Fold this protein.
Amino acid sequence: MIVSARVIPKHGYKFYDRKPAVIDMRADVLDGLASRPKRLSPKYFYDEAGSALFEAITELPEYYLTRTEIGLLETHRDEIASRVGEGVCLIEYGSGSSRKIRLLLERLRPQSYVPVDISKEHLESAARLLYKENPWLNVYPTSADYTTDFRLPSATGSAPRVAFFPGSSIGNFDPGDAVDFMRRVGRLVGPGGRLLIGVDRKKDRVILEAAYDDAAGVTAEFNRNVLRHLNATLDADFDTSKFSHVALYNETLGCIQMFLESTTDQSVRIAGTSIEFRTGERIHTENSYKYEPGEFTAMAEQAGFRRDAWWTDGRDRFAIFLFVAI
Ligand code: AVI
């Protein structure tokens, strides 16, 4: 019998539950709505209906982000693979349906793939499907809150680590939190480990505002769906027809800001508490920061990375960066 000199752990498929902390949604929502200006965390967008609406957003003609990033991954996957090397442990943050990683797997031939997501059920089914399609790959879905420290499955062994964070989801953090997040990623991948990350670039406000306020009104429904989610989960009685969707590019901050604006004076009950709204009053629901390549590179450097390579599209809309942890 021939025994390979290099022992690669082989477990096929294994689910890891890192037990993400359960948030007190009631307290968090009431606290946000008691703030001035009122705010709701974007994490409440993503119930089942919200996740489906987000998928629909990614197909919209105005929402160039997803298709531009996919184009970049397709065009540059050979170079990405040759820089990253084979046999790595590939960790995807907020993996969702693992759609984008499929573009890289054949070229990268990683030793293991660790999709990390807070939702257990969706993570399980998406990871099982990916394993079925790629039986040569160790797939270790890990349910964890990636904005906090979490342990990688021990089965990933000593393979070099590569974190993948596509979709410009980094833009939904405030810049200081984005640097803290990347510092955390740097600790997880260790010196020499890598971060492959997609970032939406600054551009003309007309293009940006259309991407977040599409003609078909899908983003408006996505925004309003947060109120439906509160109605279902916190026994609230929001009338969604009395809130309009607002998406504005704040040039000073370099971010799209989304709001729900009350179209009338109204009172809403949430978990037994009354919240008053004046006509024109807004709830801030999301920030989506846009970065120039130099600006984002400086943030990654602050977090302890150096830039190895980066790629952008012909219209300078989106960028993918490959960083190495120092
Ligand atoms: C998930 N995230 C990167 C999206 C974005 O573009 O900031 C969320 C989104 N909000 C409205 N449209 C899409």
Observations:
- DSSP finds nine helices and 15 strands in the chain.
